Every structure is written in structure tokens, then in C-alpha cells.
């Protein structure tokens, strides 16, 4: 029997300790039944009904300001730089969580999947909405692992700004380069946050220099750190010449002081800050003509008289123009520097109306939105994330999907907050919405209010294109801008526990494919097996785990295999004649040769005599036949790439079906490929290994055995950075080997570089190992 009944949280009041030694069990049960259940503090991020005196904000209280006060931002970085921890602090200081979550404890808001909490990494991007000092911020926390690069890509596609988080002890790392290039591709303005300033080995100077050298960016130092490593206690605001010091006794980092730097007490620091401010003013003046005129006119003799507001406005313009990046610093884990980061987000990153989206003029205020992510909810069904560029979305309204050419109805409209959502009556331009009821909309689909609205926008785009002498296809591409899906590099077979469970597996894979377009599922026509294609070992492992947990299926994975490609080395000719019956007759003559430039799909050319008066249906049949023939090469059954096909002769008997044309062309291409000299192409990976100097030799020796090519060995404080290339086939299971070689002290990052030809010896070994086994990619 319990000796005491401890404190229960009911309406935020404490119940006095009750002596229950002599109480009957029935009475204890009655007391417990009357008590409301204890709510764990770590996951409360909106006001719960029944809780009185709650000091956290309700999601219903989120403001709806004018579009100028909306910020759509993403947090992006290399794995383990502190993205999720920074997001957790942002939500806490903005008042939407009760307590600080921790990645190691598995209780953060944005890492809500079981797999994320177990591994301590972000797998899915998660959206949260909150307000800060009169601004509404829609924030997306993105993954840092290379296997989930698509998650970053599709989020950056719809964001107006980004915060790049860096480990101050490591500076720019491998995946930092990848996400930075993605942000460049989508022209996303960004600011840099040098995190982990409290970490041993943290170096503000080194991190800034790596941004300048590796990212080819111009850093604007808006802050200086007060100490580094364990001595880190706060930051200096260079713009306002103030120091921000956090109270050592404050456990949550809310308590900090902002003090102006004085000659009496901070002479050395004031001098250093003044020099940094003057350098910042000169740097911004070089990049912004309006600010340069102001500085040279009124403040040329004394930069100290320049108001902070004028400098901040100029930094905002420079950030928006992407000619430089503001740099801030702090330690999210130690709760220092996050509030100034929030201020910088609202001050320097653009609002939706400041981004120049050319296609908006074509819609004239009508609804224009882009779906960028789909989730499957067991209760609600598919949840579609949308970025609204113009117009308004309301529940129970019909929308037109331009890509799918279909009309659907939105049943409910939700405001996203990680895995918690609240229903809202409408959402305007510039925001990110979560919709329920769309069964056919997929990632990258453009949404309009109606088909007539979409056609009107297309006509305006076409007229604009004619004025500017553009191709119509460009206008169409802008109208239907989507997300580029990377090709998978790994594949394996997946089988259900029994034949009866195959439909359930097919449904699970269909749902997961809609959520994650980088996951490809194919059927082996010879064995009938289902083949799973993914971006890496972790990607396929996560998919396998999700099928088990979310769909209750104990599936079996075959051995993981590399997605090879094939090509040819010489020019070959082939002729084929297909006779179905009296009505179907096709004769084809074509040439297949290596293409000079790299291309995943075959390049089709028509000889002059063939292209004349060839019906569109016949052209489509020819293209289908060529593509189907190039899906399986003659060596490994891998896709064919880097080939050009020229059609020299095509004789079609009147009444011949397009299916027969396609079959004949496909057979003729296959015949040509078998005659040619063939070459296997293997995926080559960019590899970056961070290893202590003591373990460098065994790591290099191991890479040499794996057919690795070392490009460069850099020094980063006490560590060595090995940069090179290694074939993907040789790197499977490398994490375990690397941990063993370095006693767990080394880390590595991989990224697909390109496909390269295997040497004859390695190709011969591969073919002999795979002989008798046909695998379809």
C-alpha cells in the first residue's frame, strides 16, 4: 500500500498530502477518479481545456496581421548543427510551449515521429505557426541528413527566407553546402546563426571565415560573442553597440540584460565593437547605393551618429537582394542568443509581398497556391500543405488542380503546429495552410480557384510571353512550377508476410509514395516482386519501420543493392519488322549511338524523311517504345542513359495500332543495344570524413581499399577533414566500420556526385557476381 498520495496537478493547484494508510481501496479509487489526469509538461504546446491560469499562448490567439508582417522561414543546416533545438527555443520564447524540449529526451515539438525521437534526428519537415512582437511567423524545421534532401528542397520552394544554422566549432560542413545550393537555386534570402558557441573548440572567427570561403558569401557581422566555449556568456549587438548578457541563474534563458557599452566599464569591448560597426557600415554601403548616399552625405565624418534604424533598413535591403548574409551567434542548448535571432528574422528576412513572384500578375488576385507536402492522417485522411501566393482559401470551397486537371473540395482548413492542428475559418495570401479532403493533389501541384481562373491566367501568361518574345513553354513552366525529384540510388525487394497481405502493402506503399516522392516503387516483371527504391540506407530503413508501425505490416526486405546504370560505347544500326495480322505491319530502321552530353532519358531524333506528316499519336507511340526499351539494359537490367537514337525509316501499314508501333520500336532498340559494346555506370559519391588526426592513417587506408579517391585533406582545429570520391557500392555499412576504426570519434557525410564508368575488371567481377540474377531498377 502506498504510504502517501503525492501532489497532483489539477487546475494548477496542489492537493495536500493525504494519509491513505488506513483508507479502504474503494475510497482511494473514488478519490483518484475525481482527480483529473496529470498532463506531462514536455508536450503541452497549446492551452489545454480545463487548465486555469495557463501561462502559454493558445494557437487560437495567433494573430492575423497584414501581409507585410508575415514571415515564411525555414531552418536549414548540416545534421546535428542544432536546428530542432533552435526551433524548440523559438517556440518556448514566443510563448507557445510550456517547457523546453530536448532532442536527446525525445520530447521536442517538431520531431514528433517515433523514428525521429528514437534516433535523435529530423526525418520529416515540420511546420509550426507562432507570433513574435506583432509578426506572424510560419516556420519549417527541415532535416539535415542527405537521405532526406527532398524534404529541404520542397520546403525551400515555398519559403520567403531561411535561417542557416552552423556548428560554431565546425563551420561549413558537407550538407551545409547542399542546402545552401538549394537556397541559391530558389533565390531564398537567408541569415546565418552560429550555434553551439558554448561548445569546446567553438571559434567565431573560423566559422565566419568558412562561410566566406566555402559558401562564397559575404558575411555581415551583426553580433560578436562574449567569450567562446565554456566562457560564452552572451553577445554584443554591433548595430546598437549594446551587450546582451544572460543571467547564469536563469534556467530557461528568458532572463537577460541589454546594456549599452560604456567607455568607463567596457573600454576594450567598446573599441572592438565600434571598429566592427564601422566595418559593417562600409560593407553595407558598398552593396547598397541608397545607404551609401546617406552615409557619404550626412554621416561621413562620424559613423557613430548613424541611427541604428537606418543601418537595419539597409541590411534588410541587402539581405533581400542576396548580396550578403547577416551573421548572428548564440547557443540554443544553453538558451542564449535565440531572442535576438527572432528579432533578426522579423527585421531582416522578407515578407511575402517583398518577394518578386512574376506569375502573381497573371492571377489578378484569384487563388494561386502550391501544394508542397502531403501527410496521411489515420483519422482525417490526406493532409495537404499549401503555400498561398494570392487569394484566400476557405473550408468547403472547391479548388482546381491544374496539374491533375481535376476539381476537388476542401472539407476543412487547419493551422499547422507540428502534429497538432487547429481548425480555422479562412487563410489569406502569404500563409501556409493545411487542408483536409483533397484526395488527388500531390507534391508540386498548382492550385487555382477554378478551371476558368486557371485558363485566364494561362492566357495572360501567354500574352506576356509574346510581348517579351518568350516561348510558351516557359510561361507554362512558371505556371506549374513544382519540385525536382532526385533519382534513387539504392533498391531492394520488399515482401509482405503473406500473399493475403499484398493489397495492404500496396496501399501502404501508395500512401508513403504520395508523402515522399523520392521513394519509388516498381514491380519486377520476371519475378513479380515489389522493388523499393530510395535515397540511401537510412531512407529505406525508415520506410520499412514506418510500414511496420503505422500500417501494422511485418514486411521482409531483400539485400540492399546499388542502382547501377548502363550505356553503350559505339554506334549501332538495327532493323525490325513486326507483323501482327493482315491489318498490323510496322518496319523500323534506327541508329543508336553514345550521346555527347550526360542525359538520363534517351535523346530522340528523326531523319528528315521520317518527320514529315508523322501523326502525333505515332510520335507518342515511338517515344513510349524507346523509353520502355531503355528501362532495362542488356547487362544488368539497369536503365540505359547517355544515348541518342535516330529514326531513319518508319513504314506503317494503314490501320496499324499505336501499340504495335510502340512494340516494334522497342524491340528494334533492344536489338541494337544487344549488338553494341556495353558499359556499366556506377554511382559515385562525394565523401567528407571528419576524423581526429590520430586516426587519419587507418581511415585513409580503409578508403583506399574501397576504391576511394582522395581530393583534399583539410585541417579544422584538432580534426582532419578528408574530402574525396568513393563508389556507392563500396560504402554500404561504412558507418559501423568507421566507428570501429576511430573508436566512435569520426563522422562522415555522403552526397551523390554523378555516375561514372566502371573499369573492365570491376565490371567483370560485378557481372559474374550477378550472373543468373536479373534485377530491375
TrEMBL record:
| Entries under HAMAP family matching the protein | mEF_G_2
What is the scientific name of the source organism?
Canis lupus familiaris
The reply on keyword GTP-binding is yes
Q: Which SMART domains match?
A: EFG_C, EFG_IV
User: Which SUPFAM superfamilies does the record associate with it?
Assistant: EF-G C-terminal domain-like, P-loop containing nucleoside triphosphate hydrolases, Ribosomal protein S5 domain 2-like, Translation proteins
Subcellular location field? Mitochondrion
Please tell me where GTP binds in this chain. 77-84, 141-145, 195-198
Q: Could you give a single Gene Ontology term from the biological process aspect? A: ribosome disassembly
Looking at the record, the residues that make up the Tr-type G domain are 68-353
Mind telling me what this protein is named? Answer: Ribosome-releasing factor 2, mitochondrial
Amino acid at each position: 500500500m502506498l504510504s502517501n498520495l503525492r501532489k497532483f496537478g489539477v487546475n494548477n493547484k496542489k492537493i495536500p498530502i493525504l494519509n491513505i494508510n488506513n483508507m479502504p481501496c474503494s475510497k482511494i479509487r473514488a478519490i483518484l477518479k475525481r482527480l483529473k489526469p496529470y498532463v506531462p509538461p514536455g508536450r503541452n504546446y497549446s492551452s489545454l481545456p480545463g487548465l486555469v491560469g495557463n501561462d502559454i499562448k493558445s494557437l487560437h490567439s495567433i494573430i492575423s496581421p497584414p501581409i507585410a508582417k508575415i514571415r515564411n522561414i525555414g531552418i536549414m543546416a548540416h545534421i546535428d548543427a542544432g536546428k530542432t533545438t533552435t526551433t524548440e527555443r523559438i517556440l518556448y520564447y514566443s510563448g507557445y510551449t510550456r517547457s523546453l524540449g530536448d532532442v536527446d529526451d525525445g520530447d521536442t515539438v517538431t520531431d514528433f515521429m517515433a523514428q525521429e525521437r528514437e534516433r535523435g534526428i529530423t526525418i520529416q519537415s515540420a511546420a509550426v505557426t507562432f507570433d513574435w512582437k506583432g509578426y506572424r511567423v510560419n516556420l519549417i524545421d527541415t532535416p539535415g541528413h542527405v537521405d532526406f534532401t527532398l524534404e529541404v528542397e520542397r520546403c525551400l520552394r515555398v519559403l520567403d527566407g531561411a535561417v542557416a544554422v552552423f556548428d560554431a566549432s565546425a563551420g561549413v560542413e558537407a550538407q551545409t553546402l547542399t542546402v545552401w545550393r538549394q537556397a541559391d537555386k530558389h533565390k531564398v534570402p537567408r541569415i546565418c546563426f552560429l550555434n553551439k558557441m558554448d561548445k569546446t573548440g567553438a571559434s567565431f572567427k573560423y566559422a565566419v571565415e568558412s562561410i566566406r570561403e566555402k559558401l562564397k558569401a559575404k558575411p555581415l557581422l551583426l553580433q560578436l560573442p562574449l567569450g567562446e566555449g565554456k566562457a560564452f556568456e552572451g553577445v554584443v549587438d554591433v548595430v546598437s553597440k549594446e551587450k546582451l548578457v544572460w543571467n547564469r541563474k536563469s534556467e530557461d534563458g528568458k532572463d537577460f540584460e541589454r546594456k549599452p557599452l560604456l567607455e568607463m566599464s567596457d573600454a576594450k569591448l567598446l573599441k572592438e565593437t565600434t571598429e566592427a560597426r564601422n566595418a559593417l557600415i562600409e560593407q553595407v554601403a558598398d552593396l547598397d547605393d541608397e545607404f551609401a548616399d546617406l552615409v557619404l552625405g550626412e554621416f561621413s565624418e562620424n559613423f557613430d551618429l548613424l541611427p541604428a534604424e537606418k543601418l537595419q533598413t539597409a541590411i534588410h535591403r541587402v539581405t533581400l537582394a542576396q548580396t550578403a548574409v547577416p551573421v548572428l551567434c548564440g547557443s540554443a542548448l544553453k538558451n542564449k542568443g535565440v531572442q535576438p535571432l527572432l528579432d533578426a528574422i522579423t527585421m531582416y528576412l522578407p515578407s511575402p509581398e517583398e518577394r518578386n513572384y512574376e506569375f502573381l500578375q497573371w492571377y489578378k488576385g484569384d487563388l494561386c497556391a502550391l501544394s508542397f507536402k502531403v501527410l496521411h492522417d489515420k483519422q482525417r485522411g490526406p493532409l495537404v500543405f499549401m503555400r498561398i501566393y494570392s487569394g484566400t482559401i476557405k473550408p468547403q470551397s472547391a479548388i482546381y488542380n491544374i496539374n491533375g486537371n481535376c476539381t476537388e473540395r476542401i472539407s476543412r482548413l487547419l493551422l499547422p503546429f507540428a502534429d497538432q492542428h487547429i481548425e480555422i475559418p479562412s487563410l489569406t495570401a502569404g500563409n501556409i495552410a493545411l487542408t483536409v479532403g483533397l484526395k488527388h493533389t500531390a507534391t508540386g501541384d498548382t492550385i487555382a480557384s477554378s478551371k476558368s481562373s486557371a485558363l485566364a491566367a494561362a492566357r495572360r501568361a501567354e500574352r506576356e510571353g509574346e510581348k517579351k518574345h518568350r516561348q510558351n513553354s516557359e510561361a507554362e513552366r512558371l505556371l506549374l512550377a513544382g519540385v525536382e525529384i532526385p533519382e534513387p540510388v539504392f533498391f531492394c525487394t520488399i515482401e509482405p508476410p503473406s500473399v493475403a497481405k499484398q493489397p495492404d502493402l500496396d496501399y501502404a506503399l501508395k500512401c508513403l509514395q504520395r508523402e515522399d516522392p523520392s521513394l519509388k516503387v516498381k514491380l519486377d516483371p520476371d519475378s513479380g516482386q515489389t522493388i523499393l527504391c530510395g535515397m540511401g540506407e537510412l531512407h529505406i530503413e525508415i520506410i520499412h519501420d514506418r510500414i511496420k508501425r503505422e500500417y501494422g505490416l511485418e514486411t521482409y526486405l531483400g539485400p540492399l543493392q546499388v542502382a547501377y546504370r548502363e550505356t553503350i560505347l559505339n554506334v549501332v544500326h538495327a532493323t525490325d519488322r513486326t507483323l501482327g495480322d493482315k491489318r498490323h505491319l510496322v518496319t523500323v530502321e534506327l541508329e543508336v549511338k553514345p550521346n555527347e552530353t550526360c542525359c538520363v532519358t534517351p535523346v530522340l531524333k528523326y531523319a528528315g524523311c521520317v518527320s514529315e506528316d508523322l501523326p502525333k499519336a505515332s510520335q507518342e507511340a515511338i517515344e513510349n517504345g524507346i523509353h520502355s526499351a531503355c528501362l532495362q539494359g542488356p547487362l544488368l537490367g539497369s536503365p540505359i542513359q547517355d544515348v541518342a537514337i535516330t529514326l531513319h525509316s518508319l513504314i506503317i501499314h494503314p490501320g496499324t495500332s499505336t501499340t504495335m508501333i510502340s512494340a516494334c520500336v522497342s524491340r528494334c532498340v533492344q536489338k541494337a543495344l544487344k549488338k553494341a559494346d556495353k558499359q556499366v555506370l556506377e554511382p559515385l559519391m562525394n565523401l567528407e570524413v571528419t576524423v581526429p588526426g590520430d586516426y587519419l592513417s587507418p581511415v585513409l587506408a580503409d578508403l583506399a581499399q574501397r576504391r576511394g579517391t582522395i581530393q583534399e585533406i583539410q585541417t579544422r582545429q584538432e580534426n582532419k577533414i578528408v574530402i574525396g570520391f568513393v563508389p556507392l557500392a563500396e560504402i554500404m555499412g561504412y558507418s559501423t566500420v568507421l566507428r570501429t576504426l576511430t573508436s566512435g570519434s569520426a563522422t562522415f557525410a555522403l552526397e551523390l556526385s554523378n555516375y561514372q564508368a566502371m573499369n573492365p575488371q570491376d565490371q567483370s567481377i560485378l557481372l559474374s557476381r550477378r550472373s543468373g540474377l536479373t534485377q530491375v531498377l
